[in-house]
Write a structure and sequence with these properties.
- The chain is α+β, with helices and mostly antiparallel strands.
- The chain has a single domain, classed as 2-Layer Sandwich (Pantoate--beta-alanine Ligase, Chain: A,domain 2).
- Helix content is 46%, strand content 26%.
């Protein structure tokens, strides 16, 4: 029992850490996707993308994803959003980085012939 119980508890903590990491990664990806959709539309802007990212982060909660940084870039033909952060830790001294990226072409109206 002296050997088995610490191993079982360590395994349970590792499972909890994996669940928190996956949840943080999902929040980062959802934030990047929503920010991209606000950035790439016709009339969209980098400021609109950042505002949408903040809105999504406030709705989903910042518990599992900490130290979030959102970078939004919109060019003439392409828009790109990067979300980085750190997953909350269950195990001491374990800081897992989380990164998400979403990119796509910008929308523009092209008149017909």
């Amino acid at each position: 029992m002296v050997i088995v119980m610490p191993l079982v508890l360590t395994f349970v903590l590792l499972l909890a850490q994996a669940a928190l990491y996956l949840h943080a990664a999902h929040i980062a990806q959802a934030t990047a996707a929503h920010a991209l959709s606000a950035t790439r539309v016709e009339g969209g802007s980098e400021a609109a993308g950042r505002a949408e990212a903040e809105h999504v982060l406030s709705q989903l909660g910042r518990g599992p994803l900490r130290d979030v940084s959102v970078t939004v870039a919109r060019g003439e033909r392409r828009a790109e959003v990067h979300v980085t952060g750190t997953a909350s830790g269950v195990l001491p001294f374990l800081h897992l980085p989380v990164r998400a990226r979403a990119a796509g072409p910008t929308e523009s109206f092209v008149p017909g012939p």
